[in-house]
Design brief:
heterodimer, B: 689 residues, mainly alpha, 1% strand
Chain lengths: 63, 689
Amino acid sequence: MLKKLKHLWHLIRDLSGDNAYEQYLKHYADFHQATVDTPPPLSRKAFFKLWQDSQWKGVKRCC
Amino acid sequence: MNKTIKSIFWALVALLGAFALAGIALNRGESINALWLITAAVCIYAIAYRFYAAWIASQVLVLDETRATPAERLDNGRDFIPTNKWIVFGHHFAAIAGPGPLIGPTLAAQFGYLPGTLWILIGAVLGGAVQDMVMLFVSTRRNGRSLGQMARDEIGVIGGTAALVGTFLIMIILIAVLGLVVVNAMKHSPWATSTVAATIPIAMIVGFYMRNIRPGRVLEASAIGVVLLLLSVFAGGWIDHHETLRTWFDHDGLPLAYAIIAYGFAAAVLPVWLLLAPRDYLSTFMKLGTILLLTVAIVILRPEIHMPAVTQFVDGSGPIFGGKLFPFVFITIACGAISGFHALIASGTTPKLLMNERDIRMIGYGGMLLESFVAIMAMIAATVLEPGVFFAINSPAGVVGKEAADAIAKINSWGFAVTVEQMQQLASDMGESTLFARTGGAPSLAVGMASIFGSAFGKGALALWYHFAIMFEAIFILTTLDAGTRVGRFMLQDMLGNFNKKLGETSYMPSVIFTSSIVVAGWGYFLYIGVIDPNGGVNILWPLFGIANQMLAAIALCVGTGILVKSGKLKYAWVTGLPLAWLIAVTTTAAYQKIFSTDIRIGFFAAADDMATKLASGALSAEKAAVAPQLIFNQHLDAYLTMFFVVVLWVVLIDMLRLCARYLSGKPVLKLSEAPHEPSRLVENWVRD
């Protein structure tokens, strides 16, 4: 039961974008090798700004 | 053994569905329980999803689960992200389901519950869901390109331009009609107006919270917002009872319309994080929560439907909008049955998240079925009202008369029982001064919802439920208004960018202000005319919106059919060709009648001529004579707009047919623009694990 609730909570976080930053960090760790020249990942605030702006390009809501 | 059980199960679902459908279709005289509508709907959706959608997926589109989707190939962690199918389903559904499926069925209930219900079910299963699924598929195979781009790549420049211009115009009309619905819900209602007004600062607080106080904590911020929204419903009641405060929020239609126009402009110019994004979170949560609550309430309560199956208004004399059952029920209910607007979400936005092609059936087809179900619930909420009450709320003063006694006499003469006292009692139960002529569908839906919620969860708080429902409708109508104005602005900037590079920059302030002004002026004009029109405006704007929306659907289906034929699947082209033919018949007939009908309640020119004659002979009251020239101009404009829509539609259709004919006779045509096949690594990993 508790496991299912946890799963649901994850689903809600995924859906709402609540964990978008965590996913970005994961994506960053998976795709960007840490070398001297790679820039560090964005801060939570900077990432959220970028993410929110990219969410509202194009048709997002309909009748 | 297992197979036999499955067969028996599906046979039983089919039987139950057929039984429920026969029950609602053949029932005459006595009232029928809403549960039958829900049963019929669920069975039909289940059968269609299990068999028709599965067949389209495997035989017509030939979904390939080993093929990498654009989200996998172009994964950039921002807009292209391979995402779990339930998450994509949630995003897709939240994007497609706006106020349309709530308003359309409410207005179409004037024909009785049966025609609208049948169209919602059949239209969704054979038309809307197919369109959404096919669009999602073709866009996924083309790196998530938009409908306009695909129309240009696959059919030609004409098709592409038509899709672009069509989208822009439909946006203008949609926003105007939605604005009108909100204005009609707030007119002389301090409670509704103050609650709706409160949603603006609440959205700003939420936006500020998730931008600056706790960046990115979307759920926390939304929870705070939802609590504040519920409080604002209570606070609205308090303001309504306060003698001086209530006068601040007690307004005519026109000042409210100006306020909405000013608000729309501000929302398009302000940064998204301050107003649009947080409002959208709130509206999505409210929308999902309220629809869930309504389903639960209907299942608990099992209300009786009081509207007759079919009313006398199928002959075209309906008070809410003029026009016969065919074609107008199919125009009035677009969203919920088939909506061209969805093609814009199904192409461009959703494909960029798709992890695997096999999810297309659930997201494209399934998402539309859920929206259709929302439309069925709106139909139930409208038809559980006593028909007399329903018509008293929804009939404009221009049709039934301004005085309560006149309106009641008129409605009684149609054979629907209702009294002045009954309407007064209902209005005071709902905390309103009057419910007469509250056109647009929102107030009657709110009364329907309030009575369902009230009966299911306690009768005491009808006025609270009513204003909760109004707030719920207003918040996502305003979200569509904000988002639509912004999209219109982007489209206009994109177009102007071809002529002047500077104007095309989305962050160049003079261009932002200039293009936003044009878009807002566009819908602001139609909203203004709608408000000053004594017939309520909805009767003109909603059919215009329906025609535009169906036109867009027809363009999408043209693209789908063209691609099917060019892929050598002529024998399956009927899958999109059949709904296309139906939409062509419906929109062309409706447009023809709106232009050429001599009935002044249907034909634009007829209405303009009639008013001009009356104006010249001095038969109009001073009040009506003052606005008559503007109304006459508007009727002409609407007629030309309708003509434009139908010409665009036929141009795209003929272009598509020409392309198919060339292909079939072996002549060269534009090549399929499908991205080449790349095997999916996600599936390999998944198999290896």
